[in-house]
Amino acid sequence: MGGEPQTSYRVAAYITAYRDIVALNHCITALQSQSYPIERIVVVDNSPQPLDLPANGGTDEQLVVWPHPENIGIAGGLAIAIPWAVQQGYDFLWTFDQDSTPAPDCLAMLLKAYAQLATDTYAIGMIAPTAIDARTGQSVKPSLFLGDRFRGFQPVQPTASYECDAPITSGALVWLKTTASVAPPDAGLFIDGIDLDYGLRLRQSGFHNLVVANAKMYHRFGEPFTVTLWGRKKVFQLYSPLRYYYICRNHTYLEFKHSHGWYRLSCSLRRIKFLLLTLLKILAFDTGNKGEKAIAGIIGTYHGFVGKLGKTWQEE
Predict the structure, then answer these.
(1) Phi-psi region of 89 (alpha: psi -120 to 50; beta: other; left: phi over 0)
(2) Is 11-219 a CATH 3.90.550.60 domain?
(3) What gap in Å lies between CA 302 and CA 309, rounded to an integer?
(4) Could you state, in order of their start, the residue ranges of all structural domains in the chain?
(5) Residue 104: which residues within 8 A CB-CB, separation 6 or more?
(6) How far apart are CA 160 and CA 212, in angstroms?
């Protein structure tokens, strides 16, 4: 599915930045190297001290930096970037974490697929590339909501475009006309699970979310490590206490929120099981701050059940 789309679209890109100028510069370079031109790249800089970017000195008209040293997170940044892009008259906002680098033809492939597939009766909310873990080489599975949980899945035809409830936020191309009926991401989620909530709300409003299998994007997740269990290799990710807190809190909150009836009971049991397995993983494989990470997971799970959102865990 190579080549340029036949229809011309106006595209802006968005990046959430936090402290890592090297990763951010790689992401910006990848966006500026796209075969399909991006008009503006907006960076929400959540770093306590501003990152040294050309836009801070006004030398790059394509790059716009919005400093937020108070740290509004990924969700807070998207909550202001999406309405801005609508106001500026863009057709799409391409959303990124700083840890992502799309292939040079990625945007062109996404737009070509959109032009081929979207119709008046088949409205596409988000269209995303295949996300590949830059450290392990494994494809990152998009999610489906199965009544009481979000679950990653492998498509039946891995080389064709396919539907999901939620591709990961980074690399997702958001059709901005969806904002007429679907609110932007919930800023209270802060840094995790934004894709699950936003993607599912788009689906519930009648939009389709797609992954274009042959479009590629590389992304860095946590700290991967491999263990052999019963003769099979298994890759785990390790995180900071802050990330454990928000992963446990937001996934618990979202799965419990979207579960109904008896599904709420099975959801609750699954979230407790996930917490116990997370604690076991921390105790068995983590090399530092085990106590703080375990406490973060426990408190995060509790806050998820009671619906306590916002930036509620101390920053590192």
Answers:
(1) left
(2) yes
(3) 11
(4) 11-219, 223-306
(5) 30, 33, 34, 35
(6) 7
Residues of the chain with pLDDT under 50: 1, 56-59, 316
Place of tokens 């860095």: 220
Summarize pLDDT for 174-205 with one digit per residue, the tens.
Answer: 999 999 999 999 999 998 999 999 999 999 99
**Per-residue confidence (pLDDT) for residue 139, from 0 to 100:** 80
pLDDT of residue 245: 96
Residue 106 confidence (pLDDT): 96
Q: Over the chain, what HEC string results?
A: CCCCCCCCCCEEEEEEECCCHHHHHHHHHHHHCCCCCCCEEEEEECCCCCCCCHHHHCCCCCEEEEECCCCCHHHHHHHHHHHHHHHCCCCEEEEEECCEEECCCHHHHHHHHHHHHCECCECEEEEEEEEEECCCCCEECCEEECCCCEEECCCCCCCCCEEECECCCCCCEEEHHHHHCCCCCCHHHCCCCHHHHHHHHHHHCCCEEEEEEEEEEEECCCEEEEEEECCEEEEEEECCHHHHHHHHHHHHHHHHHHCCCCHHHHHHHHHHHHHHHHHHHHHHHCCCCHHHHHHHHHHHHHHHHHCCCCCCCCCC
